[in-house]
Structure formats: structure tokens, C-alpha cells
Amino acid sequence: MPKASNDLNIKCKGTIMSLGQQQSARGVPCLRCKGTCLGFEPHSWRKICKSCRCSQEDHCLSSDLEDDRKIGRLLMDSKYSTLTARVKGGDGIRIYKRNRMIMTNPIATGKDPTFDTITYEWAPPGVTQKLGLQYMELIPKEKQPVTGTEGALYRRRQLMHQLPIYDQDPSRCRGLLENELKAMEEFVKQYKSEALGVGEVALPGQGGLPKEEGKQQEKPEGAETAAPTANGSIGDPSKEYVCELCKGVAPADSPVVYSDRAGYSKQWHPACFVCTKCSEPLVDLIYFWKDGAPWCGRHYCESLRPRCSGCDEIIFSEDYQRVEDLAWHRKHFVCEGCEQLLGGRAYIVTKGQLLCPTCSKSKRS
């Protein structure tokens, strides 16, 4: 796949939207509209662009620093806090220790050798470079997070989509009442304790081992070597390891993904470690465990509480509007065309879009 232009990468250096940051994101072009959008114009409460109606994700409104701060906040106060680092002078704030992988290959060109450098914006933590590269080769090429490619943009958009900042940080939500704030804080605390996880990359049979123990130790010449077969130990060479999703064989020399919440008797091919709801790869291997399967953050939260189809935030009020399998805050139950409140009025829901009869008619004509 051809590399994205430098211009595109520069334009993506925005910030994740918050109440006090809307002005800084104005004018960021839309990746979906390909030039027809005049630039991001924030809606007052929807997570969309008023100009083109596309989402914030389609405008790539994030930066490396904001992404790392968001994931740091998500993982702090959990058993995965070792993947974060304290920010100096940050009053307890932690940031994601994102593992990058840089590959430099010499290219012989006469007397002056040059170097081909490939940077992966993210790579599995705690693995050798060889295992990290093997892992990347098992991911679809268009989704490999190589700097300057569509794969890097895909990762950034998935960070926003699968792990919305407003699903974990009450200060990024709009107008939470005191009882809703307390309910959200408890909701976040509970999923960090009971569901949040980060996948581990290892060879079959080596999940859960301290990294230095995951390697075969040198043995004296002629000595016998027993291969332990218990979970979390070096695998039995005669044992066949099977992917939990596709049920295909996991070769002994090929990396797999483990989930500590699932137990180390289960493993997934790298391309098979996906959300059970949307079947999208779990960005940076961050998952939420529920009903015997991994979920992305977005769909996990939606499986427990309704999400407002208007503002995209989780609803913590017990008083909300529901139509079939869709939900809205009462104040957001408005026509997507003219924005008039539809409580007690006629409305039409088509393809997930809420419209008054007048706007629906004009849309069809």
C-alpha cells in the first residue's frame, strides 16, 4: 500500500476533542470526504463535524501525546499500570509507555550505503525484536501501524473509536448530574477491576512466563530436557495449539496472543484477536473480557449501559428515550436535520438517523 503524504500526517496533528479544545481543532480536513469538506467545524454537543457531518475520528483529531495520555489514564489504577509512567510534575498523572519499534536495514548503493528505516508507531511490549516483527507480519499489511501509512492512521482512528475518552473520563462528558457522575466513576472503577486487559504476545505455550524464563535454557551436553506442559510454562513440542477464534493450528514457532483474563490455556492468532461484537482488531491489544470473549471498549460499555445515539456518550440517567435498539438522552432526542426537540412529536428513525417528518421528506426528495 502506498505511503500517505507528509502533508496528511501533519494535518492529523490535532487534539482529542474536549469542552475547552474545540477551537484548536477547527479547519482539520476530513479523511473520508477527501477535500470536499471545508475543515472541521465542531458541533455544540454531537461528536461530529457540522460542515460534513462526519465523525471526529474521520478528521483524525488526536496526537501522539493525547493518545498516550488517554491510554495512560485508562491503564492507571489497574493491574496494567506497569505499562504507564508517571509524568514529572503531573500531580499523579500517568502516561502510556507505548512501545515503538524501529527497523533500519542497510541498502547497498555503490560506495555510499543508505538506510531504509521503518518505524512502527506501536509494537507489542516485552518481546524481542524478532518476535515483534513476526507478530507484525501476521497482521494485515493495511493495518500495520507503520509511520506514514494508512495503517498508522487506522490505528489512531481505532484508538478514538474503540476507546472513546468520554467512556473513561467524566470531565470529557457534557452535563453529568451529580448522581450520574458517581455512577460513571463506579462504572469505570468496576470495568478496570473486572474486565480491562492487555493482550500478551508470546510463542505457543509460553504465555504468562517472565520474559527471561520464556527462553530455553542452555543445558549440559547429553542432558535430558523435560518440557513442562502446565499452563504458563514452556509448551510440549508434541502438543497442538489451536486458535480460540478460528480453531486453526498455531505453529510452535509463530507468535500468538494471550489474555490473562481468559487463562493461559487459550491463545489467538494475531489477526484473530478481535472484538467479538465488531470483529475489528483490538487496538494495541487492549480488550475488555466478557462472556468468555474479548470486546473492544466501545462495545463492552454499550453491552452494559445504553449509548446516546446523539452525543455518543454512555447514558447514566435512568430517564432516557429508547426507540427499538437505539437510545438517546432526553435532551438529545432531536431531529438530526433541523435540531428541533422531538419529545411528544412525530419522528422517523431510518438507518439509525432520527428525523422529523419534514426533514425526512426533504431528504427523500
| Percent of residues in beta strands | 15-25%
Write the H/E string, N to C: HHHEEEEHHHEEEEEEEHEEEEH
Gyration radius over CA:
23 Å
Shape estimate: globular
- Structural class call reads alpha+beta
Q: Sheet bearing the most strands, described?
A: 3 strands, antiparallel
Mean pLDDT: 84
N- to C-terminal separation? 40 Å
Which strand order spans the largest sheet, edge to edge or round the barrel? 5-10-11
> Helix proportion of residues, in percent?
10-25%
Query: Quick one: how many beta strands?
Result: 15
Which spans of ≥5 residues are poorly predicted at pLDDT below 50? 1-22, 212-234
Number of helices: 8
InterPro entries: PET_domain, PET_testin, Pk/Esn/Tes, Znf_LIM
Protein name: LIM and cysteine rich domains 1
GO molecular function, one term: zinc ion binding
Subcellular location: Cytoplasm
Task: Explain this structure.
β12 and β13 form a beta hairpin. This protein has 8 helices and 15 strands. By secondary structure, the chain is α+β, with helices and mostly antiparallel strands. The radius of gyration is 23 Å and the shape is globular. The chain is 21% helix and 15% strand. A 3-stranded antiparallel beta sheet has the order 5-10-11.
